[in-house]
């Protein structure tokens, strides 16, 4: 039997009057997801953990079958470094580094620098003067990896706010601090990197700091399809295989058919295939309600519906797990620690409900037992 895990990043949300008192996924036209729910089982899982960052790093580590508190402190930056092939020593500190856009009055406007293109990003980075012992490696669009060689501080000493959680906030409220005080070298790096734009200025924003560490290998063969370097690096670091298909961006209009094609091509070689789709999270952080609905409809049209049709036509035993990694709320642009409703469809499973489609509120009303996220995949593959 094969397990396919579909992760619409940040899919869960609140209900909104603009959507007829429905959440984005309730409002969106998602016939494939509806089929998964009506023909399968629904449940509730805890992907976030008290005291750990609210986000995909924790959520996806748990979905892969790892208990996240056992591996922290940890930052996504080390996985991005793995993907980019950047060598990291035991005393090096690694940080994700966004190119962000800030207004003239010091308000964080956009954590993606208006989805900056690679050519623009590279030209901007060439103009930035870095202090000795600090390197920057470009990844994709606004994403970069910053390496502090032989950095003496503990990774937990630098409190670096996540820019996607702070759109609309003033810089003085979210600047990195060291032991309760503004940490001057990093603050200097941020402000010295400023370059003017029509709306304000681009700046570097380091966050998600970590040191390299080792992980036990997954007890099953896996293949991950994603547009994100950090998830590619995570999958490889956990002993799996991974691919970033051409044309996949993590935004609206990403090449989702290429993701599905890659997953189906590799499914015979592995026990589990994970397909990650990032656009719902990006749109929610930008407070784009219509964009989040569009992202979910694209995922259903290009991933979930054709995946169901293909696997049913093949006739081999399979299960599909539909599981967001966390809530991302359009109204606030932030993640929530709330338990996550999931649906699982396929071999040997019969419905445990009478729901007509995926609905955060209705699945919660079904009162499923709360399952730790790191138990799900091992249980479904057993």
Give the biggest sheet: 8 strands, mixed
The appropriate CATH architecture of the largest domain is: 3-Layer(aba) Sandwich
- The stretches of 5 or more residues where confidence is low (pLDDT under 50) are 178-182
- Proportion of residues in extended strands: 15-25%
Mean pLDDT: 93
Count of individual beta strands: 19
Ends: how far apart? 10 Å
Helix content: 25-40%
Radius of gyration: 20 Å
User: Order of strands in the sheet with the most strands?
Assistant: 13-12-14-1-15-18-2-19
The helix count comes to: 13
CATH superfamily of the largest domain: Alkaline Phosphatase, subunit A
**Number of self-contained structural domains:** 2
Helix vs. strand class: alpha/beta
- Give the class-level CATH name of the largest domain: Alpha Beta
Query: CATH topology of the largest domain, what is it called?
Result: Alkaline Phosphatase, subunit A
The gross shape turns out to be: globular
């Amino acid at each position: 039997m094969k397990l396919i895990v579909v992760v619409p990043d940040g899919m869960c949300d609140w209900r909104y009057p603009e959507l007829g008192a429905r959440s984005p996924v309730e409002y969106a036209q998602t016939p494939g997801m509806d089929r998964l729910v009506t023909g399968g089982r629904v449940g509730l899982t805890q992907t976030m953990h008290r005291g750990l960052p609210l986000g995909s790093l924790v959520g996806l580590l748990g979905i892969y079958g790892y208990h996240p508190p056992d591996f922290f402190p940890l930052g996504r930056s080390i996985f991005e470094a793995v993907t980019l092939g950047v060598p990291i020593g035991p005393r090096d500190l690694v940080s994700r580094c966004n190119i962000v856009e800030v207004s003239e009055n010091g308000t964080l406007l956009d954590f993606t620098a208006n989805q900056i293109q690679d050519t623009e990003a590279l030209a901007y980075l060439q103009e930035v003067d870095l202090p000795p012992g600090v390197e920057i490696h470009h990844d994709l669009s606004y994403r970069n990896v910053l390496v502090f060689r032989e950095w003496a501080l503990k990774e937990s000493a630098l409190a670096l706010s996540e820019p996607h959680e702070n759109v609309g906030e003033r810089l003085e409220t979210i600047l990195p601090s060291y032991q309760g005080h503004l940490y001057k070298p990093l603050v200097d790096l941020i402000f010295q990197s400023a370059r003017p734009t029509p709306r304000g200025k681009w700046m570097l924003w380091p966050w998600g700091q970590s040191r390299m560490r080792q992980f036990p290998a997954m007890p099953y063969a896996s293949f991950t399809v994603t547009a994100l370097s950090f998830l590619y690096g995570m999958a490889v670091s956990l002993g799996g295989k991974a691919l970033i298909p051409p044309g996949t961006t993590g935004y609206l209009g990403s090449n989702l058919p290429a993701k599905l094609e890659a997953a189906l091509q590799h499914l015979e070689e592995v026990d589990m295939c994970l397909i990650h789709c990032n656009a719902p999270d990006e749109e929610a952080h930008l407070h784009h309600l219509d964009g989040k609905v569009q992202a979910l409809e694209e995922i259903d049209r290009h991933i979930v519906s054709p995946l169901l049709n293909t696997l049913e036509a093949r006739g081999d035993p399979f299960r599909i797990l539909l599981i967001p990694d966390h809530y991302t709320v359009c109204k606030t642009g932030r993640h929530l620690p709330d338990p996550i409703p999931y649906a699982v469809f396929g071999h040997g499973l019969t419905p445990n409900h009478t729901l007509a489609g995926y609905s955060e509120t209705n699945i919660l009303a079904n009162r499923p037992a709360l399952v730790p996220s790191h138990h799900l995949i091992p249980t479904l593959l057993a």
